[in-house]
Amino acid sequence: MDYEVLDISGDVGIKAYGESCGAAFVSAGLGMYGLITNVEGIDEKQDMELEAVGDSLEGLLVNYLNELIFRFDTYGFVGRRMEISDFSPTAAEQISDRQASIKVMVYGEEFDPERHERRLLIKAATYHNVKVEEIDGTWEIDVIFDI
User: Fold this and answer.
1) What's the pLDDT band for 128 if we cut at 50, 70, 90?
2) How confident is the model at residue 95 (pLDDT cuts 50, 70, 90)?
3) In the chain, what are the domains?
4) What does the pLDDT read at residue 92?
5) pLDDT by residue (tens digit) across 51-78?
């Protein structure tokens, strides 16, 4: 498991890890799905492409996770595996319309309460104490979710 659950009074968070920034983003997405259900019980019956942008790595992370939450809330889609097809982690300050971006293919299926364990109802990823940083060659992400 490339993430751990952070117990925060009134909310929940995760600390995700990766050998690259992109791998840490994938770990954060899968960690969030792990808060919603047991991802081991999810089949890869469907795929969904997702794109997100942000003015910073932290902004990109929050937008990316909130897009995953939106897809779950709207379509019931929950992922088991993710592959990044495009990742531009730095926003170019000299080019005003350039933002950090991520494009991900998510493999999973529609959540079925008859087959899938229901864990937490996540409302949103927040900016509160959000952190994306490289520490001794490993990328670490801290993010808190409203539940």
Assistant:
1) very high
2) very low
3) 3-89+99-146 (3.55.10.10)
4) 47
5) 999 989 999 999 999 999 999 999 999 9
Place of tokens 């791998």: 23
- Alpha-carbon Rg for the chain in angstroms: 15
Dihedral, CA atoms, 130, 58, 18, 8, nearest 10 degrees? 20
The number of CA neighbours under 13 Å toward the Cβ of 146 is 9
Tokens 């790595």 -> residue: 57
Q: Is 64 exposed, middle or buried (0-12, 13-18, 19+ CB in 10 A)?
A: buried
Report the half-sphere exposure of 42 (CA within 13 A, side-chain side). 24
What does the DSSP assignment read for 46-101? Answer: EEEEEEEEESSHHHHHHHHHHHHHHHHHHH-EEEEEEEEEEEE----TTSTT--EE
Query: What are the backbone dihedrals phi and psi of residue 111, each rounded to the nearest 5 degrees, phi first?
Result: -65, 130
